[in-house]
Amino acid sequence: MESSSPLKIERIVAGGWGMTHLGSKVTFIRGVLPDEMVTIKGAESRQGYQFATLDQVQEVSPDRIVAPCPVYEQCGGCQFQHVRYDRQLRYKQQMLEEAFSRIGHVSGQEYLPPVPSPFTYEYRRCVRFSVFQKDQTFQLGFVQERSRTPVESTGCLLIPESIRIVVEELKKRLAALPRMPAFLSSLEVRSSAAFGNHVLILKSPRLNQGQAQSFLEIFKEIPTVSGCVVASAAPPFGRKHTPIRRVSGEDHIFEQLNDIAFRISDRSFMQANWAVFGMVSQTLEEWMGNPEGVRILELFAGVGCLGLSFARKGAMATVVEENPYAIADARKTASQNHIGRCRFRPSTAEDFLATVQPNEYDVVLLDPPRTGLSQTCTQALSHVKVPRIFYLSCDAASLARDASRLGAAGYKMGRVQLFDMFPQTAHIETLVEFTLLS
User: Fold this and answer.
1) Residue 134: is it exposed, middle or buried by C-beta count within 10 angstroms (0-12/13-18/19+)?
2) Does residue 72 belong to any structural domain of this protein?
3) Which residues are CB-neighbours of 275 under 8 A, at least 6 positions away?
4) Distance from C-alpha of 252 to C-alpha of 73, rounded to nearest angstrom
5) How far is CA 17 from CA 83, 261, 266, 400, in A?
6) Is the pLDDT of residue 3 over 60?
7) Reported confidence tier of residue 148, pLDDT bands at 50, 70, 90
8) CATH code, domain with 13
9) Quick one: which of 260, 298, 304, 387 is 20 to 30 A from 327 by CA?
């Protein structure tokens, strides 16, 4: 279904899509703004809705700017480069509030003004590239949205200059290869803002020890790169192969938060926008108040950034994380920074909560993955009766769903703070306070 007559964009919805109606079908269009009049071409139809491609903007919004990235429309990694930054924040706040209203059906919360990122570009401290072959040379790039088509985009404007310098050297070495030792599914670069070094993480679906060593030789002696890890990815379901992991130099970096040098190894999750994550930590401290003697349970803790920060300030922290490598990083961070009054539990949130007695903790910190909390987890939280919960979310839809479940379990939602962790994209990071009703 196409439209030769202009359509009016009604609003921006989750994912940064512009929404309008064409006939009886809700139509989603990328790269548009509210109140713009546009024509479309090529629609991908679903039952009751469709995704369409923008043809022309005939009436332009005053919020529109020229996207600076030359592959913005092809790459799909960013959704808001064509939008003034102050309006990006406004649209994200509207998407967040719509999620709470439409999905969570919750009310009474206090929405605080969005916290902008100090850097609207060049903020990513880790970036994962796809590796593909084009014109008989190997290149780095990303995959187009809603497709598997690669886009050469090593000049990504979200990447700081220090990573770009490393990437340029990687490009030269890849371009010089007549063939690859093995297929690479991804090549990740991690950068420490505090200490200036980088670590490379190469993933392959399957490789042997010789192939892994060949990759280490290809990428050795790159300035500011302190280590390189080559590893085979987890095998597809039902298949077995021996996992391979070879390391040259260091397999981790250190990053600074609250005067603590956190160890983050290659198999642990790393925050992309460290500056904004520091603002999240500062806001959490302000909301919590004096942590001295407070019994804190940090679930989905990763390398323990939040729990260890509070332990340094006098709290008694229990750090719970399913990933054994991340919990090992947290232990080493505590030891190297001489942080006591904390304990570490390698466990899922659900399994650990099953061991917690009512009133055993004063505060729970939650930072779950994009899928949010399981129903088992929210039911367990209602049983342990923790007076305060602080929930850090990277997905508005799962957060709204969980807010509804926590409300049914006796928790009232209070302050809601959006942090722009990922400028130029439609991703939303949100901190929410929940208080147990007496």
Assistant:
1) exposed
2) no
3) 117, 118, 119, 123, 193
4) 34
5) 13, 39, 33, 19
6) no
7) confident
8) 2.40.50.140
9) 387
